[in-house]
TrEMBL record:
Keyword Nucleus annotated: no
Domain Bifunctional inhibitor/plant lipid transfer protein/seed storage helical: 18-104
Record protein name field: Bifunctional inhibitor/plant lipid transfer protein/seed storage helical domain-containing protein
Residues in the signal sequence: 1-24
Organism: Vitis rotundifolia
Gene3D superfamilies: Plant lipid-transfer and hydrophobic proteins (1.10.110.10)
Keyword vocabulary terms for this entry: Signal
One family name in Pfam for this protein: LTP_2
Family matches, as InterPro entries: Bifun_inhib/LTP/seed_sf, Bifunc_inhib/LTP/seed_store
Length: 110
C-alpha cells in the first residue's frame, strides 16, 4: 500500500505545473521527509477524493528530484491502470497546468 501511495504522490509531483528542482543543499533525509509529508497529505486521492488544500500545498513545494527516482516501470504500469489522465484532471482542478511530455522516472505525461 505504501508503494502505491508513493506512486500517486510521485505522479502528483511530477506533473504539477510549477515543478521545483532540488537544490544541492537538499539532503537524502530531507527528500525522504518531503516524500513522507506528501504521501500523508495526498493519501485520500488514492480513494478517489480530490486533492485537499494541504495536498496541493505539499505538491507545490516538494522537489521533483526527491520523488521521480521512485517511479519505476512497475509503478508506471500501475499509474496507467489508475489513469494518468484522471490524475491530470485532479491536478488541473487545483488550478495548476500540467506540462506536456514531462518525464518523471518511467512516466511521461500525455
Amino acid at each position: 500500500m505504501r508503494a502505491v501511495l508513493v506512486l500517486v504522490a510521485a505522479v502528483l509531483v511530477c506533473i504539477w505545473g510549477n515543478i521545483h528542482m532540488a537544490s544541492a543543499d537538499t539532503s537524502p533525509s530531507e527528500c525522504k521527509e518531503e516524500r513522507n509529508l506528501l504521501v500523508n497529505a495526498c493519501r485520500p486521492v488514492l480513494y478517489g477524493r480530490s486533492p485537499s488544500a494541504d495536498c496541493c500545498q505539499r505538491v507545490r513545494v516538494t522537489h521533483v528530484e526527491c520523488v521521480c527516482p521512485y517511479v519505476s516501470t512497475k509503478t508506471a504500469a500501475i499509474i496507467e491502470v489508475l489513469g494518468i489522465r484522471k490524475v491530470v484532471k485532479k491536478i488541473e482542478g487545483c488550478g495548476r497546468t500540467v506540462p506536456r511530455k514531462f518525464k518523471c522516472g518511467s512516466i511521461t505525461t500525455p
